[in-house]
Amino acid sequence: MPVRQQILVEKFSQATPTNFISASEVVAKHIAKPGMADRVAEARRKRAEAKIAATGGERTLAHLRLLAGLSQRHVAEAIGTTQPAFSLNESGERELSLRYVKPLADVLGVTIDAVVNAAMVKRK
Questions:
Q1: Is residue 73 part of a domain?
Q2: Total count of domains within the chain
Q3: Angle at 114 between CA 89 and CA 43, to 5 degrees
Q4: Nearest by Cα to 74 from 63, 56, 87
Q5: Structural domain boundaries, residue 109
Q6: 96 occurs within a structural domain
Q7: Separation between Cα atoms, residue 78 and residue 5, nearest integer Å
Q8: DSSP readout, 23-65?
Q9: What is the pTM of this model?
Q10: pLDDT mean by block of 10 residues, the chain; 124 residues
């Protein structure tokens, strides 16, 4: 390993505590507690309803996901992609691939039309 790379690795190792826990791990532990998954899903649904009301009724992919009470990670895993990739789809930074439309509709419990319409909201 080159000296410069070795120095960076050593500095990073020193800066990251051995007991470091990522935010995803914290959320996963919290949701694993009895009854918490349902409470988190309900909070997501309420957040979606408020956001939909604020946008005049238009539903984005994020709204559909939140209404289903699901996390980006859960949806991404269910449709065969990654959370960062799905996040780009939700934000409109990346167009939703046709291969994900049907699986996404199934996971969210909505029609294919609802998914296509939601994917187009950010593109207007």
A1: yes
A2: 1
A3: 70
A4: 87
A5: 23-121
A6: yes
A7: 37
A8: HHHHHHHHHTSTTHHHHHHHHHHHHHHHHHHHTTT---HHHHH
A9: 0.72
A10: 63 63 74 84 89 86 93 94 94 92 97 95 62
> Tokens 């190792």 identify what position?
13
Q: Which residue has the tokens 């960062």?
A: 84
Please state, in angstroms and rounded to a whole number, the distance separating the CA atoms of residues 24 and 30: 10
Residue 56 lies in a domain: yes
Taking a C-beta distance cutoff of 8 angstroms, is the pair 71, 115 a contact? no
Pick from 41, 45, 46: which is nearest to 27 by CA?
41
Asked if the structure places residue 71 within a domain, the reply is: yes
35's torsion region: left (phi>0), alpha (psi -120 to 50) or beta?
left
The CATH number of residue 54's host domain is 1.10.260.40
Contact 108, 75 (CB under 8 A): yes
Quote the DSSP letter at residue 93: S
